[in-house]
Automatic annotation (TrEMBL):
Lineage, top ranks: Bacteria, Bacillati, Actinomycetota, Actinomycetes, Propionibacteriales
A Pfam entry, by short name: TrkA_N
Protein name in UniProt: Trk system potassium uptake protein TrkA
Stretches assigned to the RCK N-terminal domain: 1-118
Entry coiled-coil feature ranges: none
Species, as recorded: Kribbella sandramycini
GO molecular function: potassium ion transmembrane transporter activity
Length: 220
């Protein structure tokens, strides 16, 4: 898929290289053309000089065909503004913003804009949200048999019981992240819009389960 990144610092350049290695097309935006020197000489994506919340700049970066947008510049305000423009003006579903101020990050998380911080952790978490399918496990047991992973669920799972996921897949819903807080599912817990679903599953079944949850649910 096509991903647009705002900010070509350490996080942005690492994220761009990682995405390209996985076979995705990437466009990266930065105010300074010199910042693009951080990219690998083998980088084949598009580089666009400008402000990442400017409509024309975003269009030049291919936002109209993008499926994901990451705002990782060094300015909290710019990142939030760009993330909102990508989501609200261009309808991008997978949007994430880097926020340095933990207090502000919590506020925006509660408004439904996923936010992350710190370089190594940021790239990992960005990958989880930009590439819902096949995300990296959050934990794996020493034998490599069982994994805990945040799994993308199709929007049509919203309104269903968390237990329905278990019945459909045989996996276990370990917890949900809702408005930035962890929630342990009960028998009557319903999946809400914006929930992040963390599932414990057998390693060998991971691809199948991610595929099931990425599609609309069958009648149970």
């Amino acid at each position: 898929m096509h991903v647009v990144i705002m900010g070509c610092g350490r996080v942005g350049s690492t994220l761009a290289r990682t995405l390209e290695k996985r076979g995705h097309t990437v466009a990266i935006i930065d105010q300074s053309a010199d910042s693009f020197r951080r990219l690998s000489p083998n980088f084949t994506g598009r580089t666009v000089t400008g402000m990442g919340f400017d409509r024309e700049v975003l269009i030049d970066a291919g936002i109209e065909r993008a499926e994901a947008f990451a705002a990782v510049s060094n300015g909290d305000n710019s990142n939030i503004l760009a993330a909102r423009v990508a989501r609200e003006n261009f309808g991008i579903g997978n949007v994430v913003a880097r926020i340095y101020d933990p207090g502000r990050a919590e506020v925006y998380q509660r408004l439904g804009i996923p936010t992350v911080g710190t370089v190594k952790w940021t790239v990992d978490q960005m990958m989880r949200r930009l590439l819902p399918e096949g995300s990296e496990p959050e934990w794996r047991d020493p034998s490599g048999t069982v994994r805990l992973a945040e799994v993308h669920v199709n929007s049509q799972w919203v309104g269903r019981l968390a237990f329905d996921i278990e019945k459909a897949t045989g996996a276990r819903v370990a917890f949900l992240t809702r408005l930035g807080e962890g929630v342990l599912p009960r028998a009557d817990t319903v999946i809400q819009e914006g929930d992040l679903v963390h599932v414990v599953m057998l390693e060998r079944d991971a691809a199948k389960i991610e595929s099931q949850l990425g599609a609309k649910p069958e009648e149970l």
